[in-house]
Amino acid sequence: MSTHANVLDDLEWRGLVANSTDRDALHEHLGTGSVRYYVGFDPTAPSLHLGNLVQILTARRLQEAGHTPYLLVGGATGLIGDPRDSGERTLNSAETVKEWVERLRAQLERFLDFDGPHAATMVNNHDWTASLSTIDFLRDIGKHFPVNRMLARETVKRRLESGISFTEFSYVLLQSMDYLNLHRDHGITLQFGGSDQWGNLTGGVELVRRADGGHVHAFSTPLITKADGTKYGKSEGGALWLDPEMLSPYAFYQFWLNVEDAKVGELLRVFTFLDHEEIESLEAESAEKPYLRLGQKALAAHVTTLVHGAEETARIEAASAALFGGGDLTALPGTTLGAALREAGAVTAPAGEGRLGIVDLLVASGLAKSKGEARRTVGEGGAYLNNERVTDPDLVPGPEHALDGGWLVLRRGKKNLAGVELV
Fold first, then answer.
1. Which reaction does it catalyse (predicted)?
2. What is the reported pTM?
């Protein structure tokens, strides 16, 4: 159970409530027994990402406070796509959406408790949408949606200039219908989602009231942005995926380790389960000694452990230390080492015939601008191979130097690092 009498107070302290339908009524509702709530995830990609993680962890906070979660994967809504500012979505095939539904379900199952008195339940809106006739949909759902209200929605207003299909325009009806069905079949009285979903969330609340005279609640979580207001998670490789195949756990860890000082407190509140005192203490220490990056280190360790597990986090921390001379490189598995070196910058070189010498490798990896500079670096004692200082400028590293996975670790000075994969 949460240490807080009412979980809404904790969510507000963490900055997780952007909008709510009736704050006082919601507070009272969450304080009078176990509430059944739901949050939805559309399979628009084969993995969940940073934005979804906000919702997943919010769902877990509510469950830990004694409320009962329903996790909806949108097998039906994923076939349509929520309207977005940038234009029409490309519709994915039914087979692709079905496969992504299963992948998302497997990811979600790791974060919540599916046993016990407040066990989580998985639902798929394809179950109640696929068999619905067009006539029934228009009579039972469409009848309750005034078009003037739908046109007033922000995303729709922005899209009217460039054009919006009837398919995307009617998305709000489908998502609202989810709330109505879950309210009727499971007694769900609370839905939450990202602030970009606010129109859909209130659409569901309205539909339950108009169709059944029911009184239900909704709140939205804020969009997580960088200090300059731009979205997080659009790194060079795309979104910050939770799937280790799409984004290595090492790169995931590095993202959190490198967040701006100005954002650390906010991100600790949103993405960790540290209590208020621990977070305030970390914020104070970080403000006093920002160069120690204590907040970032705590953030990286906690979030990586939540998403990828404690063992993976320990491997990443060992790799980070070992790469800069603080540990044993030979003890690292090739997968972790490879992910770390690709993140730092890696090149390939022949393992057999045509092997490159240390001077050529320093140039090829970008650690030296020219052969002359590379030779000087070796002469001055600033070149390292696998954390061992190189003294011979004519050294030709071979398979006997290769670490697990066929890697060489090159370093110039204390901080400049590169990987060489022998192929």
1. tRNA(Tyr) + L-tyrosine + ATP = L-tyrosyl-tRNA(Tyr) + AMP + diphosphate + H(+)
2. 0.89
